Amino acid sequence: MGLQHGRLPPCVHYEVHIPAYKRYPYFMTEDPLSPPELPRAPQPEFLTETRFDEFDLPAEIIAGLKNAGFVYCTPIQAQTLPVSLTGRDVAGQAQTGTGKTAAFLITVLNSLLTSAARKNKSPSAIIVAPTRELSQQIYEEAKVLSRHTELSLVQVVGGIDYVKQAEILRAGVDLVICTPGRIIDYYKRKIFKTEGIKALVIDEADRLLDLGFEKDMRYILRKLPAYDKRQSMLFSATLSYRVMELTYEFMNLPEFISVTPETVTVEGIEQTLFHVGIENKIPLLLGLLKREEWNRMLIFVNTKAGVEYVTHKLKGNGWPAEGITGDLPQRKRFRLMARFKKGQIRILVATDVASRGIHVEDISHVINYDLPQDSENYVHRIGRTARAGKTGKAFSLACEKYVFHLEPLEQMLEYKIPVVWPEEDWYLEDKSKPLPTKRKTRLKRSAQRRSRSVGNQQRDQPKPPYKRKPNHFPGSFFGFGPAPEEKKKTPSRRKKSAAAEATDPETSGKESPVSSKRDTQPTKKKSSVFNLTDTESTD
Fold first, then answer.
1. How far is Cα of residue 535 from the mean position of the Cα atoms in its chain?
2. pLDDT score recorded for residue 111
3. Which of 76-90, 252-266, 449-463, 521-535 has the weakest average pLDDT?
4. Residues whose CB falls within 8 Å of the CB of residue 371, separated by 6 or more in sequence, listed in order
5. Complete domains list, the chain, with CATH
């Protein structure tokens, strides 16, 4: 019995409504980077009638798709695969959670299996993602789909053992999943080589540009083989002018495929807007946590300090929450994400850096504690819920500090977000203690303190004024100023000795040989432009 209307047959049993943290209360792994495989959620209801086995795919990929539970294609997959499997370039517009990751992974794996084997240790395909969380998500999905193949994969991101990743690249791999910064570092050290690249994927291209990776992406694309010697695929939530410029410059006449964002992401999300003062945001947040029935919740804050503040307030009121920001060590970030996926953490407070790297299917609520300063981030935030055709709720708290971003947000959405005015009993008392202020760490060693104090004293001492020479005249270096005074000529030693001999009675009558020789020679005046010789003057 096959699937009908996107529903599962009755013979297949999926534990959907039981959270993962209740099904596996004592299950822990030593490696937090490789979470256990949990039963997958039911298939979404917006699937198409196109099946994966209708495409001419190798048996190894078909087996991987069955292990992942993929039978029917999503709209972006059904439109992309017929074009990409023929080797043509694709530029796709789709939101997160629509299945585009599987679309380009199937294409890349098919290209690697059907093409000739690698002759050297250079990789054959590269996938570039903007964040480490998103690259981790792609890497995990690629391991599932390539389980029955002999292809080798590697994830190259910052914050992980540099030497270990370099050794894997030197040994040779087929597929590299990376972020721009670390892979450029390996290229400059001649560890990563690009002459064998036959397939390129750029995921979340608009996010790459927003995070300031445009120069890095152009550097990577210039080092790859020419666009007519490789297959290129680009996916983005919005095809802005900057993204389109990349496609025209570095891709070979790509086929543009678009899935309407409103029909995929926003349709199943119940959006609500609360106008609230800054001092009442925490009490209202506590009331929403108590009133709503939720499974997993994501709370977005604009700043790192805001993440620390909200996390501290939630923990102080008995709600176990964890915060994740961009400057956390990579292993700690992966550990928090693994615990959140397994259900050990039910509330995660994050900034926009992590908004596109969180791939969890059972997030029921998203709360915008701060309205996003960039309107496009709003769609990316609420896209964390209602993934794969499900429904979810998105609450936004508009305070006097960030309410100015509401008007451009609603202009982008082309509709007004429904406003709800909370009752008085929705506000709960904040029982947490004030957030402790961080003190500057003092130096432990007194020698360091003394050396620093001496250095500060030397640096703070005023410099002595510049003393000029007494005969200094401005502009004298360029030839300006009064003429230099003529110095009085002092008689030479020879003249002094001659004068002394003349006054000496003993030597006055004698002539020196030198003087007699000088007197016998006739004297000639030096000729110059202005002085004439003696002969010329007499004539």
1. 92
2. 94
3. 521-535
4. 378, 396, 397, 398, 402, 403, 405, 406, 409
5. 20-258 (3.40.50.300), 264-426 (3.40.50.300)
